[in-house]
Specification:
Elements (H helix, E strand, L loop, with lengths): L6 H10 L6 H12 L6 H18 L6 H15 L3 E2 L12 H7 L1 E2 L1 H12 L7 E3 L6 E5 L2 E4 L5 E3 L1 H12 L15 H18 L3 H14 L4 H13 L3 H14 L6 H14 L1
Parallel strand pairs: 1-2
Antiparallel strand pairs: 3-4, 4-5, 5-6
Helix pairs in contact: 1-2, 1-9, 3-6, 8-9, 9-10, 10-11, 11-12
Length: 272
């Protein structure tokens, strides 16, 4: 499929694939490319360093992980006032690490990225877990933490409750839901979250750019192919919309939304 060259997507790809940049730098670059061209990455790295260093200076030399996690939670959530944004969850700003650092509100993915980074300052090696619909963090298989809700400890019942809330009781907990995710997987999830936030806000051009960023990493991802078709249609690019909607049906002929997509294709053809 011939796509118009987008220098932003090309720059994004080269950054994502570059092992010389860590996850924090990649998240801040993401903010800079999409929404904040004047953002100074170094300034936000300094802010994170201040949060981490002030935590380190406040604790004694105890290496007990339970103690360290409780001190991390107290510092980040009680002293500094960070929390999950329940009031405006779908605000696109919640996907940008610079905004989360400044306004002290975020969604599970951005809160978890910040939480894990600050934990490093006190020698805690926490892992980000790709739990469906709600990113969480683990110290080990027994210690699952939710930075979105003040670092609370989660058990299997809590995790099933999260699944029930987001999947209407249709998804059972599986141990692999607690597998660690790579930086690349996190970034693609962040791009998709932002796409959904932009769609909710009717900002279709930026949502389309997010889809293109996701497809640059995973060119055959069915949902991104479908969403690209839908967004091209909303932006009145009929030819491109048909191309991607048909491709979606080719690779996913038994999808739940086949009827909706076929109807959309019909309506585009009728208008043309």
């Amino acid at each position: 499929m011939s796509e118009k060259f987008d220098p932003l997507v090309a720059e994004w790809m080269s950054f994502v694939k570059n092992p010389n940049f860590n996850l924090i730098e990649k998240c801040l670059k993401f903010s800079q490319l999409i929404e904040y061209p004047d953002l100074h990455v170094e300034e936000y790295i300094k802010k994170i360093n201040w949060i981490g260093t002030s935590l380190k200076e406040s604790i004694n030399d105890v290496k007990n992980p339970t103690y360290l996690i409780s001190m991390l939670n107290e510092h980040l959530f009680e002293n500094l006032g960070y929390s999950g944004d329940d009031d405006d969850y779908y605000n696109p700003k919640n996907n940008f690490l610079n905004e989360v650092i400044d306004k002290k509100l975020g969604i599970p993915i951005t809160m978890s990225i910040l939480y894990v980074e600050i934990a490093k300052f006190i020698g805690l090696d926490l892992k980000i877990v790709g739990f469906p619909s709600h990113i969480v963090v683990k110290y080990n298989e027994e210690m699952i933490l939710d930075p979105y809700y003040d670092g609370r400890l989660l058990d299997i019942d809590d995790l099933q409750e999260i699944l029930n809330a987001n999947f209407r009781g249709e998804l059972e907990f599986k141990p692999e839901f607690l597998d660690e995710v790579t930086s690349e997987q996190l970034l693609i999830r962040m791009v998709r979250n932002l796409k959904n936030s932009y769609i909710q806000s009717f900002v279709y051009d930026k949502a389309l750019r997010c889809v293109n960023m996701a497809l640059a990493i995973e060119p055959e991802a069915p949902e991104d192919i479908r969403d690209k078709g839908i967004l091209e249609q909303r932006l009145l690019n009929s030819e491109k919309a048909l191309e991607y909607l048909n491709k979606y049906l080719e690779i996913n002929p038994n999808a739940d939304d086949v009827d909706f997509i076929l109807e959309l294709i019909r309506s585009i053809k009728t208008k043309n």
